Amino acid sequence: MAKRFFTMIKELTQRPYRKRIRVVHKVPIDQEWDKPVSFARIKEELSKSSDIIFRDFTLRGKEEIPCSLGVVDGLVDKDLLDAYILRVIMVEAVDDPVFQEMTLKNVIDRLLTLFTPTNEVKKIGRLGEAIDAMLSGDAVLFIKESQEALVISARGWSDRGVGVPQNESSIRGPKEGFNETLRTNTSLLRRKIKHPSLRLVSMKIGDLSKTDVVIAYVESIADMDVVGEVLKRLSRIRTDAVISGDMLEELIEDHPYSPFPQVSNTERPDIVASDLLEGRIAIMVDGTPSALIVPVTLPMFMQVNDDYYQRAMIVVIVRTIRYWGAFIALLAPSLYIAVTTFHQELMPTTLVLSLAANREAVPFSALGEALLMLLALEILQEGGLRLPKPIGQTIGIVGALIIGDAAVSAGLISPIMVIVIGLTAVSGYTIPYYDLAIAIRLIRLPLMILAGTMGFFGLAVGLYLCIIHLLALRSFGTPYLSPIAPLRIRAFLQDTFVRAPWWASREIPDLVDVHDTKSGRKK
């Protein structure tokens, strides 16, 4: 009976989609991209879209030469198109005495010469190159009877401009952040590192989206084995579309089932530049106002950009508070549950009596209380994130106060549990990276269950499993707990729990495998 039911559901869900499938092309256009340029084939493929424009005209040399200029409306600079490209074609080419003697065989080379002083221009001969150029915003000049074409740089579209990063504020550091235009982002990075060793390698990912991706690294510092591994993993990606850089994160990480982030992301050029100078690699994706950083280590996610713009003594204090905040966010509910449920003898007698009095009318166990409060907290946080910013902040604060006060007044929750969960929530906000904060929120739940069922023994087992998991993690071959395990004394003292003063930091921190810029050997 159940088998028949699931078979019927499968047939019903698949039937409409089978009717909609139809063959548009007997030969997909992607399979023809290595063939010579064919204007008829390109127009057949692209003219069905209203934003793709072909302007047909005829050039007159020794013979009439039919041509067409193909552009995508909205991706080209119309002023540049009119003032420089069409003017060269319509005026200078016609008045050029050399051009008047041209034939179809050599017209491409003469047009290439005419465009060279004013625009970035190149000759192409493959069908795929012509389609890629047009859909990327360039103007493509076709000679209809020729198997070659000219790609003329005419890109120009509206972008957001360089603004202040929204998610990574800085008190004393730079205020500029990446935007959605890839070339703007690479230029911001070039301004930070003015050295020929900075390499920017371009590639396209996505069978349909053809998304531009740039891999950035400093050749004289980065481990080229890691660079090769990054390029290999990206080249192996087979997907229809890459809409944002965050999609690549899951496709290239070493351990996809781990809750801990293995790829860092930032929208600040200064952070990307500093990571590149430490031997790491950046991945920038067109349309994404942030960059991915690999390889990463766990201490990286507890550092913020202001750590490097403040005095070293202040950074030590702030980082200590940050680590204590992460410790409280992870273990505070579990410790409270274990102590009140199994280990009351660890508390002073007056505290035990006070807790017993507060919990006398509460109908739930300590574990049940904590789970209910954390569920309410997660709902409030998720609701606050999805609402507009002013309303979301109000809902989060007011909702927590109202629900907490009502739960205590109704006798469902003890006052001490509200304090513990509130302290846990506030401590979680000290974790700089949202991905790490999410991981701690996920791990906190099983630790609470272990503490509520087996006390400190269960909590110790959970922590041991977490430590073993962290020791086994790798990010592109780099140990996740480096420089703690394996221990690297210089890096540990220079930029982990503390930050050494700048006058004492004359070498690159030994956080990942890098090359010595003086000897060229791997450190």
Give a written overview of the molecule.
The chain has 523 residues and is an alpha+beta fold. It folds into three domains: 28-153, no CATH class; 182-296, no CATH class; 309-478, no CATH class. It has 16 helices and twelve strands. The chain has helices spanning 2-20, 39-46, 78-95, 107-115, 127-135, 182-192, 224-235, 245-252, 269-277, 312-341, 349-358, 366-386, 389-409, 415-428, 434-472, 489-494; strands at 52-60, 64-72, 121-124, 139-143, 149-152, 198-205, 211-218, 264-266, 281-285, 291-294, 474-475, 478-479. Strand 1 and strand 2 form a beta hairpin. The longest helix is centred in the C-terminal third of the chain and has 39 residues, at 434-472. The N and C termini lie far apart (66 Å). Residues 15-27 and 516-521 have low confidence and may be disordered. Keywords: Membrane, Transmembrane, Transmembrane helix. The chain crosses the membrane at residues 321-342, 392-410, 416-435, 447-472. This is Spore germination protein KA.
What tags apply to this protein structure?
523 residues; alpha+beta; 3 domains; 5-stranded antiparallel beta sheet; 12 strands; 12% strand; disordered C terminus
Number of domains: 3
Structural class: alpha+beta
The rounded distance between the terminal residues' Cα atoms is 66 Å
Number of strand elements: 12
The radius of gyration over CA amounts to: 31 Å
Shape: elongated
The helix count comes to: 16
Q: What kind of sheet is the major sheet?
A: 5 strands, antiparallel
Proportion of beta-strand residues: 5-15%
What are the low-pLDDT stretches, counting only 5+ consecutive residues below 50?
Answer: 15-27, 516-521
Share of helix, binned: 40-55%
What's the mean pLDDT score? 81
Order of strands, widest sheet: 1-2-4-5-3
Order of helices and strands: HHEEHHEHEEHEEHHEHEEHHHHHHEEH
Protein name: Spore germination protein KA
InterPro entries: Spore_Ger, UPF0353/GerABKA_families
Family: Belongs to the GerABKA family.
Organism: Desulfitobacterium chlororespirans DSM 11544
